[in-house]
Design brief:
The protein is an alpha/beta fold. Helix 8 links the parallel strand 1 and strand 2. It folds into three domains: 137 residues, no CATH class; 121 residues, 3-Layer(aba) Sandwich (Rossmann fold); 200 residues, no CATH class. It contains 19 helices and twelve strands. The strands form three sheets. Strands 3-4-2-1-5-6-8-7 form an eight-stranded mixed beta sheet. It has a two-stranded antiparallel sheet with strand order 9-10. Strands 11-12 form a two-stranded parallel sheet. It is 53% helix and 12% strand.
Length: 480
């Protein structure tokens, strides 16, 4: 299983891995030489220590990835990159210190001084290697040779021309525009600077054979959501990198740091991993994660159950039909936080449908009927504790730990066709829009964020979203 990223990302990751390894070794050598009478670190290095060193280095690579150090718009800066490297190293050292309370890292935590020495040495090496040597090497040589990227622009309108012009005239990333694909302009017509329309969408495979492009950038003026998603699907068939420049995907660049070419925000919608491999890994994570969660949180379940029962009439667990993967219904579990009523909450339905049509600003508090919320309900909803029984849904396979939120049947009936794409995967307890905007996003933006998640789906992204969910719950961000 290899996650599909541009080759320069792997190059930088390998360089970082080697830099971290040298930094750890040098920090140990310096500590032992100046502050200890023991023999040198390399002399005492055992197999277990070496394996631990590899694991710690991989952890740092994940942290670097989390802080976007493998994005062109970050590693081709100096000040921003230096600050981000420093922050990443501090976070990594903090994780090492926390983990050392549970298991001993002999080669890393024999002395706090070792970690301080490691920070100084690693930061110095990263500044020398990444910020100066690789910065110049990439700009002068690598971007024009082995990492040069040939780009096909889908859309020869104003947006497409602007992107092509900026990349052509202001480019220092090593990108080259080879031509346009456009449904409205004549093939072989020159748009500017010798860049031609090479064909239509149906010609993508032939264009790929003839021009061997590495990346497709979609930038079409005045387009509907459904049409744009169909074009994305067509482009993804070429199994190359696919990025989108569109205000329809503006929520992604607003809430999530996206790649940038010459200050143009691009939303990556490329397939990153073999879906069958991913689904197997995801299901294993779901089973292990939900099982551990249920066991650890069982005392909290019991306490919440007692409070819910003694403060209001009705069942402890609220069971409701929701729509899951591919439109299939299932029973969805939550701790009951509202007073029971007969039939459907018509006021809530009306507000939700209005929200879906864009007539409401989209804040959750305007949809929830506050008069129905119980005393304990306010608390458990604020901190999302009412969602915890969904761990049983995850264990059953109806839901995943991470994925788009399952909708109610009447909501699904009012979805546009393009919006139903959010349920092309198993729904989840948390997702991108919950941790990025939670209740304070419009309906279409929440769907776009789910579709972005589906297009960028990887086990690593799932773990990121799980970790981001914890502070959202603790600090009650957006909870109502």
């Amino acid at each position: 299983m290899i996650i599909k990223y541009p080759s320069y990302k792997y190059f930088y990751a390998l360089s970082d891995f080697l830099t971290l390894t040298v930094s750890f070794i040098l920090s140990q050598e310096v500590y032992l030489f100046y502050f200890s009478s023991q023999k040198t670190f390399l002399y005492n290095l055992e197999v277990d220590d070496f394996l631990l060193l590899i694991i710690v280095n991989i952890m740092f690579i994940f942290i670097f990835h989390y802080f976007h150090l493998y994005k062109l718009s970050v590693f081709l800066t100096r000040v921003n990159q230096t600050v981000t490297i420093m922050k990443s190293l501090i976070y990594g050292i903090f994780v090492i210190v926390v983990i050392s309370f549970f298991m001993k890292f002999n080669i890393l935590t024999d002395s706090r001084l070792t970690l301080l020495i490691f920070f100084i040495i690693s930061l110095s090496l990263f500044i020398i290697i990444r910020v100066f040597i690789l910065f110049r090497l990439y700009n002068k040589i690598l971007s024009k040779t082995i990492f040069k990227r040939r780009i096909l622009v889908v859309g020869a309108g104003k947006s497409g021309q602007l992107v092509a012009q900026k990349i052509t005239f202001e480019n220092y990333f090593g990108n080259e525009i080879i031509g346009y694909v456009d449904e409205t302009k004549e093939i072989d017509s020159v748009i500017f600077n010798g860049i031609k329309v090479l064909g239509r969408l149906k010609d993508l495979s032939e264009i790929h054979r003839n021009y061997n492009y590495d990346e497709i950038i979609i930038c079409i003026d005045k387009i509907e959501y459904g049409e744009l998603l169909q074009i994305i699907d067509e482009c993804k068939k070429q199994k190359t990198s696919v990025k989108v420049v569109s205000n329809l995907f503006g929520i992604i660049s607003d809430k999530y740091l996206s790649e940038q070419y010459e200050n143009i925000a691009l939303t990556d919608v490329s397939t990153k991993i073999n879906i069958n491999v991913y689904l197997l890994i995801k299901r294993l994570i779901d089973i292990i994660g939900s099982s551990l969660g249920i066991i650890i949180l069982l005392p909290l379940f019991l306490i919440l159950g007692v409070f819910i029962k003694i403060t209001s009439n009705g069942p402890i667990i609220f069971k409701q039909v929701r729509i899951g993967k591919d439109g299939k219904p299932f029973h969805f579990y939550k701790f009951r936080s509202m007073k029971e009523i007969e039939g459907e909450d018509n006021e809530r339905v009306e507000k939700m449908l209005n929200y879906m049509k864009g007539g409401d600003p989209g804040y959750k508090e305007k949809i929830v009927n506050n008069s129905r919320i119980t005393g304990i309900g306010y608390i458990i909803r604020k901190y999302s504790l009412d969602e915890l029984p969904q761990l049983f849904n995850v264990l059953k396979g109806d839901m995943s730990l991470v994925g788009p939120r399952p909708c109610l049947p009447y909501e699904y009936q009012h979805y546009d066709e393009w919006q139903k794409r959010r349920l092309s995967v198993t729904p989840g307890c948390t997702g991108l829009w919950q941790v990025s905007g939670r209740s304070a996003v419009s309906f279409n933006d929440s769907v776009i964020m789910d579709i972005y998640y589906i297009n960028n789906i990887t086990p690593w992204l799932d773990l990121q979203l799980i970790f981001k969910t914890i502070p959202v719950m603790i600090f009650a961000k957006g909870g109502k």
